[in-house]
Specification:
681 residues; alpha/beta; D-Amino Acid Oxidase, Chain A, domain 2; 32 strands
Amino acid sequence: MPPSHVTPSHDPLRFPPLPALATLHAPALQWENGAPHSQTFNDVYFSREDGRAESEHVFLHANRLPERFAAWRQARAFVIGETGFGTGLNMLCAWACFERHAPAGARLHLVSTEKYPLPRDALERALSAWPTLERYAQPLCAQWPAPVSGVHRLHLSERVTLDLHFGDTTERLALLDGQVDAWFLDGFAPAKNPEMWQPSLFHAMAARSRPGATFATFTCAGLVKRGLKAAGFGWQKVPGFGRKREMLAGQIDSPPADTRRHDTPWFTPPPPQPAKRVAAIGAGIAGASVAAALARRGVAVTVVEKTAPAAGGSGNRQGALYVKLAAETNAQSRVYLSGLAYSRRWLAWLDPTRTLWGESGVLQLALNDKEANRQRRFIEAHPLPNALVTLHSPHALEATAGVPVEGEQGLFYPQAGWVRPKHLCERLLETPGICYRQGEVTDLRRLDDGWQLVMASGDTLAADQVVIASAHLANRFAQTEWLALQPVRGQVSSVALPDGVKGPDTVVCAGGYVPPALEGVLTFGASFVPNSDTTSLRREEHKRNLDELRQSVPALADALESAGLNAEDFAGRAAVRAASPDKSPYAGPVPDAAAWQTDYAVLGKDATRVPAQAGQHHTGLWISAAHGSRGLASAPLCAEVIASRLCDEPLPLEGPLADHLHPGRRLISALIRRQALSKPA
């Protein structure tokens, strides 16, 4: 059974501090008859006699999952929580049970913690003991994440999602933003893993439970019975498996209220609302990814776009899937790191043949001492595995890039790469359940039963809920005009590579970026012109892009010029991106700005006087915007944040990181700093 530790109890009225980013240690294993055995805890992960039958008896049948799955008719997913993922056997058994018993429209959401994740090869070896589970194990192993603390969302199938919360179990549950219907209370035996079986674990489970949530566990230890009872669970002894005579099962009827936003009540999520028809305004990567996320959940989505799919910043032929993380860990960097890892898994799941993307890796060059020092500080502050990022010395840069490059050193992200964003948007809009409609939305009107979208043509469109994803135009509505969005013009250049001239093997970034040539065409850029919303091509920006290319890959720039190619010969494209003042995206429900300014006015006098009033929001109105130049690493994850919140599911980020994305942070910041909220020009 899987190892999992807990931290001391924390203040239940507040989210615990986000733990430091860390690479987690692999467990020390022995293999006995094909089964893994923990040397640390001197216990087995599963029964060598019949581990699958044990999992089904202890966790599936004691939680009454076959009959509950068969009777499931709710629009939201059924959620299972587990304290210790181990080999994944319990979760794969639950998935198989769900497929056998649940109706066609039902969905399953699995949430599991793990402090000592198995390496991929050990996971594959352990699960090979169950050939009948091979088709379930394959997508799990294919998407198995690097052993980094945090939340890792995996799409196991169109109907089944797995969130792996890597880290300390109680700490992970305290940071979980979501509720559970059935618990698998697993882990090594209390006598061998006493750090896990603490009162704080049971209280964390209770706080993340829905009314009527059930649990099952293999143990009948007295401390477990006392801990469950003290947390509010009722329990009873039921027959155990095999030679184990008894085990525990039960439920909690009245879980405690979630009060963790005691210090930030404005981020309290709005109550779930029906969502059979959603309108998404914008057909770029932000709008297309949120539409696809909702459509996969059975929601009918109409995507409305003023010009054409991917007409804005998402319309480039080739874009970089990359991040630039802060030297010291902060919330923004953690969101982007999670977003990069999620986008990589999501793309592989969406497009396994890689027609839309390439995993070339991204090499970020340090062209001066200042950047080199920043990169070294980053590596020191982020003990991440080499599978995610490595610091390259000068002699390794050319070997990685495949062409001579400049730089004192560089950060290499092996799992990053490039994407064809226009084609990706088009693929996402083909998701069943999405209807595309061309037109300009000029007004949003709240009605008793939903929203009315008023078009420039005079037509209207009705929807239960609305997601605004129109980049720098997202604050053109009365409900969002307070939202600070800066337009940033960016122009990319492209040219057919002359015979004998080779582009890089990886995406190379410095002041600009250049990915590997696609179909013989080299794309590079992009210019950066704040507060400009023009899209006509400019020769001087082609020249600037060539100058940036010369700074990082001088031999390539020289080869283009030697072939007689210069700015006049370049094709290209200009588009407008949007940025927020703090450079983090906006993803979440849209606050009622007038109500917030009244309810939280006292913050302008004393920021420590936090009113208890929960934040008021425009019912059923959401936004995904301000993705800037890193939208390929942020928009898909933000789409999952919005779709999960809208559909009443666990979130793919820790609660404090989801709050960091909330657009209301702009209002609170302005109130505390006594800043006026300016309307868009």
